[in-house]
Design a protein that fits this description.
Number of strands: 7
CATH superfamily: Tgt2/MlaC
Largest sheet: 7 strands, mixed
Number of domains: 1
Structural class: alpha+beta
Helix content: 55-70%
Number of helices: 8
CATH class: Alpha Beta
Order of helices and strands: HEHHHHHEEEEEEHH
CATH topology: Nuclear Transport Factor 2, Chain: A
């Protein structure tokens, strides 16, 4: 699980050097580059960098759908206000993890392949090959088009799904609070605050 999380976060930090000219891949590269731009300026405060990452996550990940899936049965037991609070906490959780990994950014490279459509699920699949001194790894982005725009709904590394992995990770914490999403929000909120202080300082 830790290996998958590392790979998931790592893909955000790589600088693209090749892209096939199709709309979903162009959109994805553009969103990644928004984050990279913030790390190309050494004068930009850490808090500003984080806010750019958080905005990108909020705008381009299917946050509510992913958040709902990863907490399973706890979602159905919660009130609408608790659900809204949790979705907000979950999006910040993702942004903070990505910001933490971005601190090690050193101008690595990636290539995005031309996208393909899974006709059964109507989901767009975009392969990304990430290069390092020791080789490369392929990550598949799962993207959904909705209301005239694209959203990231999952990432696959070595046949392992981000959302399935997050569901397993969160389940152990939910179990400790008897799947009470309100109590889980307190845990996630406190974790986010601790991570935020580490990022901005």
């Amino acid at each position: 699980m830790k290996i998958f999380r590392f790979l998931f976060l790592l893909i955000i930090v790589f600088n693209g050097n090749k892209l096939f000219a199709d709309e979903p891949s162009s959109w994805l590269k553009n969103e990644i580059d928004k984050i990279l731009i913030s790390y190309q300026s050494s004068d930009l405060p850490n808090e500003n960098r984080f806010l750019m990452i958080e905005q990108t996550i909020n705008n381009n990940f299917a946050g509510t759908g992913i958040a709902k899936f990863v907490v399973g049965e706890a979602w159905n037991k919660a009130s609408n206000d608790i659900k809204k609070e949790y979705v907000k906490n979950f999006k910040r959780h993702l942004a903070l993890n990505i910001a933490s990994m971005m601190q090690g950014y050193s101008d690595q490279k990636y290539e995005l392949s031309k996208s393909s459509l899974d006709t059964k699920s109507n989901i767009i699949l975009i392969d990304m090959e990430i290069f390092s001194n020791t080789g490369s790894v392929v990550v598949t982005w799962r993207v959904k088009e909705s209301k005239g725009r694209y959203f990231v709904i999952d990432l696959i590394v070595a046949d392992i799904s981000l959302v399935v992995t997050k569901r397993s990770e969160f389940n152990s914490m939910l179990k400790s609070v008897n799947y009470n999403l309100s109590e889980f929000n307190k845990i996630l909120y406190n974790q986010n605050n601790e991570s935020y202080q580490k990022i901005i300082n």
